[in-house]
Amino acid sequence: MEAKVISSGQSYITLPAGYIRPESDRPSLSEVSDCENVPLIDLGLQDKHLIIQQIGDACEQYGFFQVINHGVAAETMEKMQQVAKEFFNLPVEEKMKLYSDDPTKTMRLSTSFNVKKETINNWRDYLRLHCYPLHKYSSEWPANPPFFREIVSTYCKEVRELGLRLEEAISESLGLEKDCIKEILGEQGQHMAINYYPECPQPDLTYGLPGHTDPNALTILLQDLDVSGLQVLKDGHWLAVKPHPNAFVINIGDQLQALSNGKYKSVFHRAVVNSNKARLSVASFLCPHDCAMISAPKKLIQDGSQAMYRGFTYPEYYKKFWSRNLDHKYCLENFKTT
């Protein structure tokens, strides 16, 4: 059986042709600078007003920030990374039992982004899991490695609590009631992508993931401390976001950009790959309930400013997001009112 995934144990001396980007669409790694002033927010501070202000500033100016003292136990984070590595180190025959290129499946191993639509693939394999409610989905998760379900369940619960607290702070930073955004989003879905980027012979010719915005409300990213790869677009320049110990990177997604009436930016970001080391990241996504109507609260448009986006539901949005290639920019543009 030929493995469809790139975490097959095979090493590559040159990049296979199906992964090579045209010259106009390569990462230009020599032009990337380090992001020196990534907003790093200490959620353990006593001054809650300062935290809310810092979060609001980061959402408006960057579209992302890092958090420390966030309430997710360091042991939970370490175990999550360890069990993720163990999964991708399994024999390829074992992993391929979970393979699917059907994006509607609630648990699947896959590769690239949307292999049915792409002409050029991305240097990434990933395990995609639905995580909420846990009792509905955890039984379909991998039983190998041992303790996978137990460790990932604990991680999912702690990360969800963090995400909901951050949504409260984001809501207050917009001058809204603490629960306003959570009430609009309804009982939120939760997904996870455990991303694995094997070492790559020619990182300057391909992407782990090309530039994109996240289609969900909020992304909570656990980065590999040993290998950086996350880059964000700021003022027209790509900046590398170095991992910070025991921190999460928080991305504003398209749904929160729409809810903030465009004040907060869904950050354009990408993943690049490394020639010497594999990289792993764990992205957790909070998503609106299928019945939620996404539109800016009246308080944000009562001064006479127009709603930037028409109301829409997440399934309507997600269908459009998945029906295109990842590198077709800004899905949210399809929902603008003008």
UniProtKB/TrEMBL annotation:
Its cofactor is L-ascorbate. Residues 188-288 form the Fe2OG dioxygenase domain. InterPro entries: DIOX_N, IPNS-like_FE2OG_OXY, IPNS-like_sf, Oxoglu/Fe-dep_dioxygenase_dom, Plant_2OG-oxidoreductases. It catalyses: salicylate + NADH + O2 + H(+) = 2,3-dihydroxybenzoate + NAD(+) + H2O. GO terms for biological process: defense response to oomycetes. GO terms for molecular function: dioxygenase activity; metal ion binding; oxidoreductase activity, acting on paired donors, with incorporation or reduction of molecular oxygen. Keywords: Dioxygenase, Iron, Metal-binding, Oxidoreductase. Belongs to the iron/ascorbate-dependent oxidoreductase family. This is Protein DOWNY MILDEW RESISTANCE 6.
